[in-house]
Hints:
It is a single chain. This protein has 270 residues and is α+β, with helices and mostly antiparallel strands. The protein has nine helices and nine strands. The protein has helices at 26-62, 67-97, 111-121, 123-128, 147-163, 195-198, 210-216, 222-232, 262-266; strands at residues 6-12, 18-24, 107-110, 132-135, 142-145, 170-178, 181-188, 236-242, 246-254. The strands form three sheets. A five-stranded mixed beta sheet has the order 4-6-7-9-8. A two-stranded antiparallel ribbon has the order 1-2. Strands 3-5 form a two-stranded antiparallel sheet. α1 (26-62) packs antiparallel against α2 and α3 (111-121) crosses α5 (147-163). The protein is flat, with a radius of gyration of 24 Å. Bound molecules: adenosine-5'-diphosphate. Adenosine-5'-diphosphate binds next to α5 and α8.
Amino acid sequence: ATPRHVTARIAPIGSRLVLVLVEDRTRERRIEAVRRDFVANVSHELKTPVGAIRVLADAVSEAADDPEAVRRFSHRMLTESDRLTALVLQIIELSRLQGDEPLESPEVVDVDQIIASAADTTSVDAARKGISIRVGGTNGLKVFGAEEQVLAAVTNLVSNAVAYSDVGLSVTIAARASDDNVEISVIDQGIGIAPAEIDRIFERFYRVDPARHRSTGGTGLGLSIVKHVAATHGGDVKVWSSPGRGSTFTLILPQHIAAPTADEADHEPL
Ligand code: ADP
């Protein structure tokens, strides 16, 4: 069992009465530890692209009389600075979500729009690899949550499906109702994930294959963001995967079921 951090204070409040104050700081301590760990990881991860940009800037200034080398180094500087930007944006996103506090004011979010928007954002990367993104029947479903967060989560899943699929394959996004929830699935036919890795892929900065990761330009934070979005919504995220065959990630969020309109209610069978 996890040790608990509990303190007790005893305050006499009369000749026969004492007041016992018990304070459980387990949760605060845990959040504090996660935060410390996160900051250490972040500093480490930021050093890599910043270091690369520094080295490339030196190389550019030394290659002034070789236009081809200048062009090559500058291009790599752009790639590294894009990576740095993506990393910083995801770090900000993740630090907002880390407390896993339930949403303060959830709103009705249209699943069709989320899926269309996620497909649109990833369409350039998909087109570059000749990957087609198919949108399955989504049935006008709505979830109860934070639009920005749901969009970030689904976009991360679709962008991973594209990144970890080989040229010419397809990615399918579909949604269906299941009890009180909506299940949004992103299905790919890509490289898949070994069973031993499945539990670890949701950890911050964890990548199955850092070498391949470098070429896909990922940050190692995407799935961690997806997991936290599921938590703040009281939902879940499930994964099925088979190496060489593909993966299916399913984000489960609370469904918003509209109350029947007065007109519909009139026609309800008795
Ligand atoms: P990254 O930015 O590296 O994609 P994520 O947190 O999104 O970071 O994913 C963590 C790791 O999980 C990835 O580096 C990759 O190894 C693996 N992974 C995620 N999605 C998929 C997928 N659809 N197919 C295969 N592997 C995946």
